[in-house]
Structures are given as structure tokens and as C-alpha cells.
Amino acid sequence: MQDNKNNATAKAFPELSPTYKDPHQYPPGVAYLDSQYVPISQAKISVLDWGFLHSDATYDVMHAWEGRLFRPELYLDRFFAGMGKLKMSIPYDRAQVLEIVMNAVALSGLKNAYVELICTRGCSPTFSRDPREAINRFMVFVVPFSSVANPEQLQRGLHVAVAERTRIPPSSVDPSIKNYHWLDLVAGLYDAYEKRAETALLLDDQGGIAEGPGFNVFIVKDGQLATPDYSVLPGITRRTVMDLCQELALSCSARALSPQELTNADEVFITSTAGGVMPVTKVNQNNIGDGLVGPICKRIQQAYWDKHTDNEWSTLVIYPDD
Amino acid sequence: MQDNKNNATAKAFPELSPTYKDPHQYPPGVAYLDSQYVPISQAKISVLDWGFLHSDATYDVMHAWEGRLFRPELYLDRFFAGMGKLKMSIPYDRAQVLEIVMNAVALSGLKNAYVELICTRGCSPTFSRDPREAINRFMVFVVPFSSVANPEQLQRGLHVAVAERTRIPPSSVDPSIKNYHWLDLVAGLYDAYEKRAETALLLDDQGGIAEGPGFNVFIVKDGQLATPDYSVLPGITRRTVMDLCQELALSCSARALSPQELTNADEVFITSTAGGVMPVTKVNQNNIGDGLVGPICKRIQQAYWDKHTDNEWSTLVIYPDD
Lengths: 322, 322
Known about the structure:
The structure is a homodimer. In chain A, strand 11, helix 7 and strand 12 form a beta-alpha-beta unit. Chain A is 28% helix and 28% strand. The longest helix of chain A has 15 residues. Chain A is globular, with a radius of gyration of 22 Å. By secondary structure, chain A is of the alpha+beta class. At the A-B interface, helix 1, strand 1, strand 2, strand 3 and helix 2 of A face helix 1, strand 1, strand 2, strand 3 and helix 2 of B. Strand 3 of chain A pairs antiparallel with strand 3 of chain B.
């Protein structure tokens, strides 16, 4: 014990700072958490939140485009359904959540915005491991609109690789609950980069095409569209493409899609709230069709953006400087 | 446009607060992040960190017991291996990480502590979606030691249910990388609660027993031990039990384990850094053996805790008040 005391006297301990000073830089934006609207740089969660430590959370992403929220009700449907399936609850109803979203977008001043709604399991003050004892937390953040495809990729089409990694199967995690379990998707991205592609598609556990990091996929063959219906998030942009196909009198089915069908397609495109309808012109370094963005993709892309000024498909946001 | 302006004038916007005020309560503890040692209440990460938004992170949990870290080198091995597999890097080597851990434990004053090391993907200042552009972040937090089993459960044995949910398979996420993908485990917990059990075991995608929320499982049958070797985290406490079996001249194999073998076992116990070696006396509401904590479990439990004062198995922490 005497030895220990001598060591202790010799040892210099670092300082325990009463407050944390954040050295990081953040994009512009606004967040809502704990009944406060704050700059995005202030939007932080405790490292003890189970939403972080167990990825025990659900979320949704909607977007504002030219000062209008696109189909917010569909996103709210999915978000509230996800919370229900995870046995989470928040002290706000749909109308209140929409109002918070509208306020956060307005305060951000961003006319083109990426809007994320999050519910985490939260934690209990005692750090109990029982999820039933945690206090669920709701938050929203708004940052500038971002896209899976950059302007050049939107113009010439994305280059995609089918990754070795299998998407987490529905028997493990219900894909209809939008979730942060992305290690398979991130591994797929690194696979794709090694194959000189720009993003990845993962297979489902039956060997079919599933989805990519943050997007669904569609093929066009002989004028007919198809998109996977198993082991995928039921994306709102995917749903919007289906709705547009009805308006445009195009045939579209949700069904199993083999890797061969993907590579033999006339056209391929991906869909995400982050970017909308985005063409794919190469899969595994081989051209899709003639390697150019196809006519049906262009037509749907046009219809998609046209709906963003349609009162039936989008909701006006009032900004403080309006 | 005139209408919009009138609406805007009428609408009152909430205040945008320059700083966030945290209303939550936290357990005692200390954290290290961005080169700062801070109280646990200050340990927060940005909601934009991919470690949160994509659960793109690896971690490890070691523990201090009566002021000694137990087998820290084994945890450091796994933590650094996990970062390598996820293509993450931090500006600290093993010796520096261990020093940070020792300092954080010392500054916490906690003699029995739960010590978590985390590396997240981080984010880029532009919020780029490309994981290669993110700046990885390292942090450590120290809170009071916690156990999967409470004192009563440790005494009489846990009641476990085999959940319907399948553990995320290795084809999707490499289980040797300790990760936060827990929605399957949390769903398993809720399944177990409905079945009036206290915690859950999940099956692997081949129908064998995998693991539970934060623990591995062992059975004892006719004096021989076995633990699953597929679709499980290679736990350090699991490894320690294997090492103790060698010392105690007990046979222990890592192999596929069927649900029938589990329910027909003479003894069952689970292992976790959070609690050590913890007996299970009921599975699916049926007694294991005679329903009492078994002799081999007790023997291994005793050996496990005895090693906590052994200099070859544990490392003394020097505290400021020593």
C-alpha cells in the first residue's frame, strides 16, 4: 500500500473540465430537441442514449424543396408506425410533429432542406439496461438538401456495384421500421469503391437484389418497371414513383428481382428522398442499355420534380422573412 | 404572394436559442472526448455523427473491479481489430488508449466501473455521405459497474426465453466487430418480457442458439461445457471462461448448439463483462436441471472473481486520492 501511495503522489492526473468544448465544424441548420430550437452545432445527444449505444431508434427523412415540404403526411405515417413497432412513444401527435418540422425548417431559412425526424429509446437516469425504463426522445434536424448523386452523376448516371454483403434480413430487423443499422450498407459502399463504382446495391438473403445505402432501386425492361419488394425499406420516393407510374400509365410491379434482371435491364434508376429519382448507367462496370440515361427514367424524374410545386403533393412552409 | 406575406406576419415563430440546455439526469461518471476529460453529463455527440445516424461505430467494454482493470489487453486487441475491419483509425496507439482509460477511471473515482471505448465514423464538416471523408472519433466513458443480472437473479439464476427473432447474421454484419446493431436483441428482450422471462437468447440463421443482449451463453452437460461459435461476438468473458476451464481441467468446446441442447442441459450460464458469469435456471419457463444454480457454474464464477485480484489477470489503477 505504501508503494501505491508513492506512485499516486508521483502521478500527474489530467484536468477534469467542468464543460466540454466542441472543436468540430457543422453545416448550416437548425434542430429541435427537448422543446428547444437550436443551431445544428448545439444538437447533441448523450453518449448514454440507447439510440446511440444500441442503435435503438427509428427515424424518417423528408425534404423541403423551394420552400415546400414534399408529401409530409406519408413520412409521418411511416415514422409513427415505426415508433409503434418499436414500442416507443413521444408526447406529440402528428399535427404537433408537423408543426415542429415546419418551425425548424422556417428557422433554418433553408428553402431546399433535408429534414430528419428521430425517436430514440433514450435512457433512464440510472442507466438501466431495461428498455421499458427508458424515456424515449424525439428530435428533428434540418440541414441543406443533399443528394445520393452529385450533379455530374445525375447527368451521366451513377456507377453501381452489387456488393458481396447481404442486407440485414427481415427475420432480424423489420425493414419497414426505418433504422440506423447500416454497417452492412457501409461495408457495401467500401466494396463498391474497391470495384471502382460510386455506390452499392446489396443482395437480400434469398439472393435477390435488395437496396443500397439510403435508396431503393427500379429497373425498366421492355417498358415495364419493377422494384424489389423483400428486405427493403418501403421508401416514400419509391412509393411516389409507383404513384407517378399510375398517372403516366406505366406498368410497375414490386417483386423479387434477380441480379441478372438488373444487369440486363434497359434502364436502372435509384430513388431516395436524398436526391429523388437518380439514373444508373453502369452496374459492375458494364453499361446498362446503351450506357445513357434512359427515356423512362427522364420522364419519371421530370414528373417527380413537377409535383414539388403541386399543392396536392406539397405543403408551403412560411419563413420568418416571407 | 400577398397572401403568403399576410400569413407570415400573422405567424409567430418560436425562439431559436443560441445554446441547448440539457434537462436530463445522468449517472455519476467521467468521459474522454476530443482530448478533454469531462463529467458524463457533458459527454455528447452531434446528431450528425455517422456513429449515431448509421450506427457506423465499433466499441468495447472493459471493467474495473476494486480498482483494477480486468484483462485490458484483450479488450484493446478486439477494439483495435474492429476499427481496422471498419477502416477506421484514431490518433492513439494501444498504450495511449490504455492511459486514457486509466485516467478516465481514476478521475471518475469509481472502483467498480463499466468502461466503454468507442470509435465512430464521425462526420465531415460538409455532412458528406462518403464514409471516406469522415473524421473518425474516439471516446471513452466510465460509469458505475452494471450487471445483466441483478443481485436476486445472480442468487437464484436468470429466467431466459428463446426469442422468435433471429440474430443479425455474419453475412450481413461481422459479429467479431463489436457493434451497436441491437434492434434484433431489443425485439428479443420485448419477446422475452411477454413470455414472462427476464432476458432473451436469439437464434442464428441456421437455427442454432446464438447469443443474447450483451452476453454469450454456455451449457454444461455431463460435466462438459459448450458455447456457440457462430453468429456470436467472441466475448472476452466467454474467452476468460474458456481459459478458466483449462486451469480447472474442464472440457469446453465452441460449436453449434441446438435449442434442444440448451433446454436439456444440466446447467446454463451466460457471460458478459457486465456481470461476469451469471447463472440461468429457467429457459422458456422450464427448469434447467433441478432449477438451482449448478456446481460448475458456481466454481467458474468463483474462479472468475478470484482472478480479479491476480496481477497476471488485472492491472492496478492509481486514483487521485490513493
